[in-house]
Amino acid sequence: MRLTAAEFEGLPEPRLDDGDPLPPENRAPVRENGLEALYHAHSGRLLRFFSRRAGTTDAPDLVQETFVRMARIEPAACHRIESPGAFLTRIAANLVKDRARLAARRSSSCHVSYDEQVHGQVDPHRLLDDRDALARLEQAVARLNRRTREIFLLHRVEGLTYAEIADEVGMSVKGVKKQMAKALFQLRRDVGPL
Question: Entry's NCBIfam families (predicted)?
Fold first, then answer.
Protein backbone atom coordinates (compact mmCIF):
# COMPACT_ATOMS: atom_id res chain seq x y z
CA MET A 1 0.00 0.00 0.00
CA ARG A 2 1.42 3.38 -1.06
CA LEU A 3 0.81 6.53 0.87
CA THR A 4 0.83 9.97 -0.61
CA ALA A 5 2.89 12.71 1.04
CA ALA A 6 -0.21 14.27 2.60
CA GLU A 7 -1.38 10.95 4.04
CA PHE A 8 2.11 10.23 5.38
CA GLU A 9 2.32 13.59 7.16
CA GLY A 10 -0.99 12.91 8.86
CA LEU A 11 0.27 9.75 10.57
CA PRO A 12 1.25 9.97 14.23
CA GLU A 13 4.97 9.66 15.07
CA PRO A 14 6.00 6.14 16.05
CA ARG A 15 6.84 5.69 19.68
CA LEU A 16 9.74 3.61 20.80
CA ASP A 17 9.30 1.33 23.74
CA ASP A 18 12.10 0.25 26.03
CA GLY A 19 12.33 -3.09 24.20
CA ASP A 20 12.76 -1.51 20.76
CA PRO A 21 16.30 -1.21 19.46
CA LEU A 22 17.66 2.27 19.08
CA PRO A 23 18.45 3.58 15.62
CA PRO A 24 22.17 3.65 14.78
CA GLU A 25 22.60 7.40 15.27
CA ASN A 26 21.24 7.15 18.82
CA ARG A 27 23.41 4.26 19.91
CA ALA A 28 26.16 4.95 22.37
CA PRO A 29 29.65 4.62 20.85
CA VAL A 30 31.43 1.39 21.61
CA ARG A 31 34.52 2.09 23.67
CA GLU A 32 37.52 0.27 22.38
CA ASN A 33 40.07 -1.17 24.71
CA GLY A 34 43.63 0.06 24.34
CA LEU A 35 44.85 -2.65 21.96
CA GLU A 36 41.89 -2.24 19.59
CA ALA A 37 42.42 1.51 19.51
CA LEU A 38 46.11 0.98 18.76
CA TYR A 39 45.23 -1.46 16.00
CA HIS A 40 42.86 0.98 14.32
CA ALA A 41 45.33 3.83 14.68
CA HIS A 42 48.52 2.06 13.53
CA SER A 43 47.66 -1.04 11.46
CA GLY A 44 47.65 0.84 8.14
CA ARG A 45 51.05 2.38 8.82
CA LEU A 46 52.49 -0.98 9.88
CA LEU A 47 51.02 -2.64 6.79
CA ARG A 48 52.87 -0.15 4.58
CA PHE A 49 56.04 -0.63 6.67
CA PHE A 50 55.98 -4.40 6.17
CA SER A 51 54.94 -4.18 2.51
CA ARG A 52 58.10 -2.21 1.73
CA ARG A 53 60.37 -4.53 3.69
CA ALA A 54 58.85 -8.00 3.50
CA GLY A 55 56.50 -7.95 0.50
CA THR A 56 52.77 -7.50 0.20
CA THR A 57 51.87 -11.16 0.69
CA ASP A 58 53.40 -11.47 4.16
CA ALA A 59 52.63 -7.94 5.37
CA PRO A 60 49.16 -8.65 6.90
CA ASP A 61 50.54 -11.62 8.85
CA LEU A 62 53.41 -9.54 10.17
CA VAL A 63 51.03 -6.77 11.27
CA GLN A 64 49.04 -9.41 13.13
CA GLU A 65 52.21 -10.78 14.73
CA THR A 66 53.19 -7.26 15.83
CA PHE A 67 49.93 -6.85 17.73
CA VAL A 68 50.18 -10.38 19.15
CA ARG A 69 53.57 -9.45 20.61
CA MET A 70 52.10 -6.20 21.94
CA ALA A 71 49.24 -8.14 23.55
CA ARG A 72 51.72 -10.38 25.39
CA ILE A 73 53.01 -7.40 27.35
CA GLU A 74 51.49 -7.09 30.81
CA PRO A 75 48.69 -4.50 31.01
CA ALA A 76 50.48 -2.58 33.75
CA ALA A 77 53.57 -2.26 31.54
CA CYS A 78 51.44 -1.10 28.59
CA HIS A 79 50.24 1.93 30.53
CA ARG A 80 53.83 3.01 31.16
CA ILE A 81 54.67 3.10 27.43
CA GLU A 82 54.97 6.77 26.52
CA SER A 83 54.71 6.36 22.73
CA PRO A 84 52.82 3.19 21.76
CA GLY A 85 53.22 3.97 18.03
CA ALA A 86 56.99 4.07 18.33
CA PHE A 87 56.92 0.92 20.45
CA LEU A 88 54.89 -0.87 17.73
CA THR A 89 57.41 0.30 15.14
CA ARG A 90 60.24 -1.16 17.25
CA ILE A 91 58.36 -4.48 17.47
CA ALA A 92 57.85 -4.40 13.68
CA ALA A 93 61.53 -3.68 13.02
CA ASN A 94 62.51 -6.57 15.29
CA LEU A 95 60.15 -8.87 13.39
CA VAL A 96 61.85 -7.92 10.12
CA LYS A 97 65.28 -8.59 11.68
CA ASP A 98 64.13 -11.94 13.10
CA ARG A 99 62.80 -12.90 9.72
CA ALA A 100 66.09 -11.99 8.01
CA ARG A 101 68.07 -14.04 10.55
CA LEU A 102 65.79 -17.03 9.98
CA ALA A 103 66.20 -16.73 6.20
CA ALA A 104 69.99 -16.58 6.60
CA ARG A 105 69.97 -19.68 8.81
CA ARG A 106 67.82 -21.56 6.32
CA SER A 107 70.02 -20.64 3.38
CA SER A 108 73.19 -21.59 5.22
CA SER A 109 71.72 -24.98 6.05
CA CYS A 110 71.12 -25.56 2.33
CA HIS A 111 74.70 -24.70 1.41
CA VAL A 112 76.80 -27.52 0.00
CA SER A 113 80.57 -27.17 0.22
CA TYR A 114 82.71 -27.57 -2.85
CA ASP A 115 84.09 -31.09 -3.00
CA GLU A 116 87.41 -31.18 -4.82
CA GLN A 117 87.21 -34.94 -5.42
CA VAL A 118 83.81 -34.69 -7.11
CA HIS A 119 84.32 -31.48 -9.07
CA GLY A 120 88.08 -31.58 -9.42
CA GLN A 121 87.94 -34.21 -12.13
CA VAL A 122 86.39 -31.85 -14.70
CA ASP A 123 89.17 -30.70 -16.97
CA PRO A 124 88.38 -27.50 -18.87
CA HIS A 125 90.90 -28.39 -21.59
CA ARG A 126 89.14 -31.69 -22.13
CA LEU A 127 85.79 -29.89 -22.39
CA LEU A 128 87.20 -27.58 -25.08
CA ASP A 129 88.67 -30.53 -27.00
CA ASP A 130 85.32 -32.34 -26.86
CA ARG A 131 83.48 -29.24 -28.07
CA ASP A 132 85.92 -28.86 -30.98
CA ALA A 133 85.56 -32.54 -31.90
CA LEU A 134 81.77 -32.20 -31.88
CA ALA A 135 81.96 -29.15 -34.18
CA ARG A 136 84.24 -31.07 -36.59
CA LEU A 137 81.81 -34.04 -36.55
CA GLU A 138 78.84 -31.77 -37.32
CA GLN A 139 80.74 -30.24 -40.26
CA ALA A 140 81.73 -33.68 -41.55
CA VAL A 141 78.11 -34.93 -41.34
CA ALA A 142 76.96 -31.83 -43.21
CA ARG A 143 79.44 -32.67 -46.04
CA LEU A 144 77.91 -36.14 -46.59
CA ASN A 145 75.53 -36.42 -49.53
CA ARG A 146 71.85 -36.08 -48.68
CA ARG A 147 70.86 -39.77 -48.74
CA THR A 148 73.96 -40.97 -46.88
CA ARG A 149 73.49 -38.27 -44.23
CA GLU A 150 69.81 -39.17 -43.81
CA ILE A 151 70.59 -42.88 -43.34
CA PHE A 152 73.44 -42.17 -40.92
CA LEU A 153 71.26 -39.88 -38.77
CA LEU A 154 68.32 -42.30 -38.77
CA HIS A 155 70.56 -45.08 -37.49
CA ARG A 156 72.90 -43.23 -35.08
CA VAL A 157 70.59 -40.46 -33.80
CA GLU A 158 67.08 -41.89 -34.14
CA GLY A 159 68.18 -45.45 -33.33
CA LEU A 160 66.35 -47.16 -36.19
CA THR A 161 67.46 -50.59 -37.40
CA TYR A 162 68.67 -51.14 -40.95
CA ALA A 163 65.38 -52.82 -41.85
CA GLU A 164 63.34 -49.86 -40.50
CA ILE A 165 65.56 -47.43 -42.40
CA ALA A 166 65.18 -49.48 -45.58
CA ASP A 167 61.37 -49.29 -45.28
CA GLU A 168 61.47 -45.55 -44.61
CA VAL A 169 63.80 -44.52 -47.45
CA GLY A 170 62.67 -47.14 -49.96
CA MET A 171 65.93 -49.08 -50.30
CA SER A 172 67.04 -52.61 -49.66
CA VAL A 173 68.72 -53.50 -46.38
CA LYS A 174 71.91 -54.22 -48.34
CA GLY A 175 71.78 -50.69 -49.84
CA VAL A 176 71.32 -49.18 -46.36
CA LYS A 177 74.37 -51.12 -45.12
CA LYS A 178 76.45 -49.79 -48.04
CA GLN A 179 75.36 -46.21 -47.32
CA MET A 180 76.21 -46.60 -43.62
CA ALA A 181 79.64 -48.02 -44.50
CA LYS A 182 80.21 -45.09 -46.85
CA ALA A 183 79.16 -42.57 -44.15
CA LEU A 184 81.40 -44.15 -41.49
CA PHE A 185 84.37 -44.25 -43.88
CA GLN A 186 84.03 -40.56 -44.77
CA LEU A 187 83.47 -39.47 -41.14
CA ARG A 188 86.47 -41.46 -39.88
CA ARG A 189 88.60 -39.97 -42.61
CA ASP A 190 87.49 -36.39 -41.78
CA VAL A 191 87.18 -36.58 -37.97
CA GLY A 192 88.93 -39.67 -36.72
CA PRO A 193 87.61 -42.78 -34.92
CA LEU A 194 83.94 -42.67 -33.91
Answer: sigma70-ECF (TIGR02937)
